[in-house]
What we know:
heterodimer; A: mainly alpha; ABC transporter involved in vitamin B12 uptake, BtuC; two-stranded antiparallel ribbon; B: mainly alpha; two-stranded antiparallel sheet; 11 helices; 4 strands; globular
Amino acid sequence: xxAMADAPALRGRRDSDASLGVAAAVTIVFLIAAPFVxxxxxxMKALCFALFACAFNLLIGYVGLLSFGHALYFxxxxxxxxxxxxxxxxxxxVAIVIGTATAAVLGAVAGxxxxxxxxxxxxxxxxxxxxxMYLVALRVKLTGGEDGIQAVPRGRLFGVFDLNDEMTxxxxxxxxxxxxxxxxxxxxxxxxxxxxxxxxxxxxxxxSLGYSTDxxxxxxxxxxxxxxxxxxxxKALVFxxxxxxxxxxxxxxxxxxxxxxxxxxxxxxxxxxxxxxxxLENYLxxxxxxxxxxxxxxxVACVLVFRRGIVGELAGWLRVKL
Amino acid sequence: xxxxFGVPSQALFGQLLLGLINGSFYALLSLGLAVIFGMLNxxxxxxxxxxxxxxxxxxxxxxxxxxxxxxxxxxVPVLVGLTGILIERLFLxxxxxxxxxxxxxxxxxxxxxxxxxxxxxxxxxGQPYGVPDSLQGGRNLGFMxxxxxxxxxxxxxxxxxxATWFAIERTRLGSYLRAATENPTLVRAFGINVPRMxxxxxxxxxxxxxxxxxxxxPIYNVSPQMGSDVIIVVFAVVVIGGMGSIMGAxxxxxALGIVEGLTKVFFPEASNTVIFAIMIVVLxxxxxxxxxxxx
Lengths: 322, 295
């Protein structure tokens, strides 16, 4: 499959990675300074979505697999972590581990099924599985149905740091999300990541070179689902809420939108996209249903004229890797 | 009144009938998806929204212009089909050389736009649309009561599906279409206007969705989200059947509707997930789909 290979920004260039270092430094400085200027809750939301989108980008940008059901991992991880924190009263780090592990298991099952078909079918299967689990979430007791799980306690991290303090929570979220970014960066630049890119460019060729591509695809899928779950678990603690919105297909669509706007297959695209889309939705919230129309219009515009996304265009313009 | 497997026959056949109705919509929609995919290599995510548009345009025709069900059955597919032609000309044509995932993403965006617009004007609550006078009432078959309108929906959708199959598999025009699916360049070399055929095919697939929408209007409430609910199920239907065969898409649609209806009788909690469960089983047992070739 040649998925997404037509966007020039995706093709790996062998120039120096200095631009990445500079961009990383700028991002980190921005994220440290930001809570003094912007609302911490807004920043934490954007960070969670940034990690979610980076996890999604790992699949579409580097393996060429479009999962249209990533809300499944994000949402269910968020449910389990909220449930653990509230009903079992575990500390936040344990709640997050439980949520993330749930996403890993779901990712292994759903990924194992979805990679049995290629291309467009893959997208449809992931969407259908996510919808199935949405319907399950609507019915089972654990999720609280329409009400969701509310008033989730943030608790004390390692029993020491009180996360009810907005700044402490922000630092915690920042550390977790940055660790996630770093992990993804290491994955895509490892020998394993090179094989993933080979699958993206030409799967049959990769098979002929002796790689069992299905195994690589599955591992990438599970990694992506797990990291999406990490984002969901953290999100549940930030908002102290897990709800049906997080497992709905609109959430799967949103992560596609974020990644597309930022730039598929770029390192920083999903982060930029997340801040932009989360901010956009904040400002558009009073306009109600127009949000849907505007999101749709952005999708159409991106596909027609702006396929490389913001960071992809920027990287192409500056002739560097971002 | 007699019972079958401990279920009153009335309830059993009633749900079976409802299942067949759902099945006819699945069949019409997955047929449209398969036809579009064959020619354009695009999975039309907007298909659900176009089905919803069909129902809404019928409702608006009645509400604002007093145009009833029977004329709507003809007018609505034409109108919505025309919007489809416009969409193909404006957007989809530009995606020809791109990966087909972009087609899915673009039509997803279109679906959001269409659904958002209707939600703006009609909210998310449903609008009622009456059964046409000539199909009011029903007949008692002894073992069940058969409402006339439902019988009509099943018979008419089966006829439309069959006609579509016949047109594609057994006529000269259909053979051009199939040839263009296999090798568009060669067919063009024979002097056939393939781009126009592609445009019309998309319009036709959209018209089928709109037709299903008109027929659904008197059965379900006409609401902006009726499309997104059904399209994901239809995707599962398409994964189960595979899009390689027209007849396969039709049969899978009807069969899954019936299975869903039966599940409602025997195991109601699972009725809305059963199609997804079947999809999982099919993926495990026959990854290519029931009627699929490979991939």
